[in-house]
Design a protein that fits this description.
heterodimer, A: 269 residues, mainly alpha, 83% helix, 0% strand, globular, B: 252 residues, Rossmann fold, six-stranded mixed beta sheet, 10 helices
Chain lengths: 269, 252
């Protein structure tokens, strides 16, 4: 299966290599501008988060809880972006890709073909979120002295976190394409957009961020802390990722969320 | 080598291919003719394993395509009517990729790739990206890719489209030599002259049903008296009244 996967994915990296080697006028300048903008964005995101987290770290008791809630909030946003992105990308890679006939007529096991398309979908829809996650995780790692192991843990937790929406998004697309004729792709995309917007609202309501901004709304500090301690959406992968990361950073690593991430990703894949 | 039994494909209430039975034995060059929308491409795509039949079966080299698709497709090379080639791959990279899909790699694939590219005058373009190829060159490359893994059966949809006269002649010679060596080729074409001169047997399909099948002599007999060429036979079997209808439309 690995050989088949390598063969099926070969055109993708050969295409990337050909694009990288292509000599175009003004390419160096464009690349430089892009890298500068990327570096500025990274520096800004890192600086902002670093300052906020450093302040949280100085607050006894509730500081780490607030940092955890903030991480959970960002990860819920990432998860919803990934889900929407995967649904749309899966439509292209599984149903509208021009290489499908070529690959379907070849003696390739269906599981290899599915896995190759899933990896393609995951890669195409996740790279931007990964780029956004780098300054975020770096800020958490530096403020809470995560050490080199934190980098390994971040990679280990992010991999299943990226695979889950890819598998889920592909499944949603499969159901939608079976419900609508393939030619009505635009209709499908409209439904996807409405569902995504609704999903985002539901996800934010699950997290209830406004409660955290108004501690005076709680009857006592104990209630506020207990709310902070309670997982807001324990069934969401973003919560598992947040708990794994914050567990390590606050010295109370719980392996259960990591197991949940990997076992669910394996089952979904 | 190719056996179709009651092969049927329905799209809702429309039946594109209706209970087609066909046998193409080893070493035969079989032509598949029919008007636009007759069901040729749908049939070929079912044989290639791209479309799943609504009912019926496809056997390639005695292997049931539905039961063991990987083994059946291993015996097959497919050239579609609208082929896809990755634009950012070079010609030789594309041939390597296709051979890899069939589990082949190494010096033998390299040698065959070079031979095929040379045969179709693509040798000097072998390391150029496909995006710089003309339509005809792409067609030659896709034909080369169908031969690179030496399949026992080749199914080809409209092989001559976009080819220059020299390449068309090369392809005809290649088809003849390939079948002479015991391989099987099934091709659909609109070029009746090609079918008449090249094919051992011909099937004519219309509205998803095989109207006639056999050698040129068999087809002449099916079309009854007064016809000699394949064009006459084709028109007699698939719509003799078209020319008359055209005159009526123009007069109206």
């Amino acid at each position: 299966m690995l050989d088949e996967l390598r063969t099926l994915l070969a055109p993708k990296w050969l295409t990337a290599r050909a694009r990288a080697r292509k000599k175009e006028r003004g390419r160096a300048a464009r690349t430089a501008i892009l890298l500068t903008i990327g570096a500025i964005f990274w520096a800004f995101a890192f600086g902002l988060l670093h300052r906020l987290l450093a302040y949280f770290r100085g607050v006894p008791e509730i500081g780490p809880l607030l940092a955890g809630k903030l991480l959970g909030l960002m990860l819920v946003s990432f998860f919803s972006i990934l889900l929407l992105s995967n649904v749309i990308t899966a439509l292209s890679s599984f149903f509208l890709a021009r290489d499908l006939d070529l690959l379907a007529s070849a003696p390739v096991d269906w599981l290899s073909l599915y896995t190759a398309k899933l990896l393609e979908t995951c890669l195409n829809s996740s790279w931007m979120v990964v780029l956004m996650a780098v300054p975020m995780m770096t800020a958490y790692g530096t403020v809470y002295d995560g050490g080199p192991v934190f980098i390994v843990l971040a990679v280990l937790t992010f991999l299943p976190f990226l695979m889950l929406p890819a598998a889920l998004g592909s499944a949603i697309t499969l159901v939608l394409v079976n419900a609508f004729p393939a030619r009505r792709t635009r209709d499908i995309l409209s439904v996807i957009a409405v569902l995504a917007a609704a999903g985002l609202v539901v996800l934010f309501r699950l997290v209830r961020p406004e409660k955290l901004a108004r501690p005076e709304g709680f009857r006592s500090l104990v209630e506020f802390i207990s709310i902070l301690r309670t997982p807001t959406s324990p069934l969401l992968p973003s919560e598992w990722l947040s708990r794994s990361i914050m567990g390590w950073l606050t010295g109370s690593l719980d392996l259960l969320p990591l197991y949940l991430l990997w076992s669910t990703a394996a089952a979904a894949g | 080598m190719i056996e179709l039994r009651s092969l049927t494909k329905r799209y809702g209430s429309f039946t594109a291919v209706n209970a087609v039975d066909l046998d193409v034995p080893r070493g035969e060059l079989f032509g598949f003719l029919g008007p636009n929308g007759a069901g040729k491409t749908t049939t070929l795509r079912m044989i290639a394993g791209i479309l799943r039949p609504s009912s019926g079966s496809v056997r390639i080299a005695n292997i049931d395509l539905a039961a063991d698709p990987v083994a059946a497709k291993q015996k097959l090379g497919f050239i579609p009517d609208r082929p896809f080639i990755y634009e950012k791959l070079t010609g030789v990279e594309f041939l390597r990729f296709v051979a890899g899909l069939y589990g082949q790699a190494g010096a033998e694939v390299e040698r065959r790739g070079h031979e095929l590219l040379a045969l179709f005058d693509l040798e000097e373009w072998r390391d150029e990206l496909v995006e710089s190829y003309s339509h005809g060159m792409r067609q030659k490359l896709i034909i080369s890719s169908a031969f690179v893994h030496k399949p026992e059966v080749i199914v080809v949809d409209e092989p001559m489209v976009g080819l220059d006269p020299k390449a068309a002649r090369t392809l005809k010679d290649l088809f003849r030599e390939y079948t002479r060596r015991g391989h099987t080729i099934m091709m659909s074409t609109h070029t009746l002259e090609v079918a008449q001169t090249l094919c051992d047997r011909i099937a004519i399909i219309q509205r998803g049903v095989i109207r006639a099948c056999g050698t040129m002599d068999d087809l002449r007999a099916s079309a009854e008296s007064g016809v000699s060429g394949l064009e006459d036979i084709f028109l007699r079997l698939t719509g003799e009244g078209l020319a008359r209808e055209l005159v009526e439309v123009l007069n109206a």
